[in-house]
Write a structure and sequence with these properties.
Layout lengths: L3 E6 L3 H13 L3 E7 L7 H6 L4 E3 L2 H5 L6 E4 L6 H10 L3 E4 L7 H14 L3 E3 L7 H11 L6 E11 L17 H17 L2 E12 L2 E13 L2 E10 L1 E12 L2 E5 L12 E6 L5 E4 L5 H15 L7 H16 L3
C-alpha cells in the first residue's frame, strides 16, 4: 500500500486531540511533519508521534518534497489562502470546516484543484461514519417514506472563553459558520436536498452570531420538505438530528461528535414495524476520513465529500445569514 505522508499546518487543539492521532492511526497514512511557530505546542504531538519533523513556519513545511498532503486546521479566515498555497506547492489538501468565508473563495479553490490535478476537500468527517451512510441509505430506500421535515440542533457554551477564535468576527467566528456547517450539511448529505428558501432569527454578541434558528424549505430527489436548524454558542451542549417521513422517523442522538459527545447510535421508527436501533461504539470517523482520502488518491476514486458539496453548504450558510428577519 502506498503511504501518504501528511503534514499539519498549525498546532491547533483539534489537530492535537483528534486529527493528528487519526492520521497517525490510519492505514496507508503517516504523520510526518507539523508546522508551528511555538515549539512547545508541538510536544503533545510527539507524545504519539516521536519521529515528527517540526517546522517553525508553514512555508517550510510546504517546501518539503517528502510531504504528499496537508491538513489545515487554521482559523476560518485562513483556510482558503493556505489551501491555495498548498495546492500551488503540489500538496493534496484536507481543510477544516467551514471550508471558506464566501462562495467566491470556494470557486477559487475549485479552480485551483482542477488546474493542479490534486485532491482538495473539506474535512466533513461525518460522511465517512457508517451511521450517516445508513441514514442516507434508509432514506433512499424509502424506509420512512417521503421526507416531510428535518430538524437539526447543535449547541455548546463558550461564553467563558472570549479569546476563542469562534468569538472573534475578524477570524470568521460565529456559530453558523462553526456548527451550522453540521446542521446544514448533514441534512443535505442524507437527503440530497438543497435549500429553496430560508428565514433566520439571529442573536449576536460582539459581532458574531451566538444563537440562530434557521427555518425554511428544502427540495431534493424525494420532493420538498420543511427544515429547522438551530445553532448556539451560549447553550448547554446538545446535538441531535431528526428526519421525519410520512411513514416513519430517523433519530440520530449524537450526530456530529460521535464517540466524543456520546456513543454513535441510530434509531429508526416506522408505523406498524419494530423499532430498529443501531450502535457503532468502536468507529473513529476521523480515522475513516483520512483513510478515505488516501484511498481516493491511490485509486483515483471519487471522494465522498468533494468541494462541490462544500460549496453547497457555503451557499446555505450565506442564505441563512442573508435571511434574517
Amino acid at each position: 500500500m502506498q503511504v501518504v505522508n501528511w503534514g499539519i499546518l498549525g498546532a491547533a487543539s483539534f489537530a492535537r486531540r483528534h486529527m493528528g492521532p487519526a492520521i497517525h492511526a490510519a492505514r496507508g497514512a503517516r504523520l510526518a511533519a507539523l508546522a508551528t511557530s511555538d515549539a512547545v505546542r508541538a510536544e503533545p504531538f510527539r507524545d504519539f508521534c516521536p519521529d515528527l519533523i517540526v517546522y517553525s513556519d508553514y512555508e517550510a513545511l510546504l517546501a518539503d518534497p517528502a510531504i504528499d498532503a496537508v491538513y489545515i486546521p487554521l482559523p476560518n479566515h485562513l483556510h482558503v489562502p493556505w489551501a491555495l498555497k498548498a495546492l500551488a506547492a503540489g500538496k493534496h489538501v484536507l481543510c477544516e470546516k467551514p471550508l471558506a468565508m464566501t462562495l467566491g473563495e470556494v470557486d477559487a479553490l475549485i479552480a485551483a484543484r482542477d488546474g493542479s490535478g490534486l485532491l482538495a476537500a473539506e474535512a466533513f468527517m461525518i460522511v465517512h461514519h457508517p451511521q450517516w451512510i445508513q441514514v442516507r441509505d434508509w432514506i433512499a430506500a424509502g424506509e420512512i417514506g417521503r421526507v416531510e421535515h428535518a430538524d437539526a440542533h447543535f449547541s455548546y457554551d463558550n461564553r467563558a472563553d472570549p479569546g476563542n477564535i469562534r468569538n472573534k468576527p475578524e477570524m470568521g467566528g460565529g456559530g453558523i459558520r462553526d456548527i451550522g456547517v453540521y446542521t446544514y450539511s448533514s441534512v443535505r448529505y442524507a437527503t440530497g436536498a438543497e435549500p429553496v428558501v430560508l428565514r433566520s432569527r439571529i442573536r449576536r454578541e460582539n459581532g458574531v452570531d451566538v444563537w440562530a434558528e434557521v427555518a425554511g424549505t428544502m427540495a431534493g430527489p424525494g420532493g420538498a420538505f420543511t427544515y429547522t436548524g438551530r445553532t448556539s454558542m451560549r447553550l448547554y451542549p446538545r446535538q441531535e438530528v431528526v428526519i421525519q417521513g410520512e411513514g416513519g422517523m430517523i433519530r440520530v442522538p449524537v450526530p456530529f461528535n460521535a464517540g466524543v459527545m456520546g456513543e454513535a447510535r441510530l434509531e429508526l421508527f416506522r408505523q406498524g414495524q419494530p423499532d430498529l436501533i443501531g450502535r457503532f461504539p468502536a468507529v473513529n470517523q476521523y480515522v475513516l476520513q483520512v483513510e478515505a482520502f488516501g484511498q481516493s488518491l491511490r485509486a483515483a476514486a471519487p471522494y465522498p465529500w468533494p468541494l462541490e458539496q462544500a460549496r453547497g453548504t457555503q451557499a446555505m450558510i450565506e442564505m441563512a445569514l442573508a435571511g434574517e428577519v
